[in-house]
Amino acid sequence: MPTIFAKIIRGEMPADIVYQDNLVTAFRDIQPMAPTHILIVPNESIPTMNDITEADERVMGRMMLAAKELAAQEGIAESGYRLIINCNAHGGQEVFHVHMHLLGGRPLGPMLLR
Length: 114
Ligand code: AMP
Description:
The protein is of the alpha+beta class.
């Protein structure tokens, strides 16, 4: 079964896509937790961080570069931002297609609740 994100990448489901190239797609989170909340995903379906291999080095690097460019576009590069990749149950992963959250636009507080 394709995930929601696979459908967004293929244009089969609506999303606010802010960037797309041959390796990655970025779109706004449907339930934003900060003024900027963008998800950056590989176009290829990789379920979790546990599934990445050396063959994915290029796409994972592209996700980082896209994050940097999008942060600049959003005007949050200097104020700062947070990048998060959740994995499996303890990581709080809900959609099993690797994705990086780009969050910013306000102070984000401590990294984790104590
Ligand atoms: P995670 O908990 O890391 O798996 O995050 C999944 C994220 O996907 C959540 O922040 C959701 O709000 C977001 N999300 C789920 N469905 C959609 C959608 N159709 N479009 C955009 N974001 C979505």
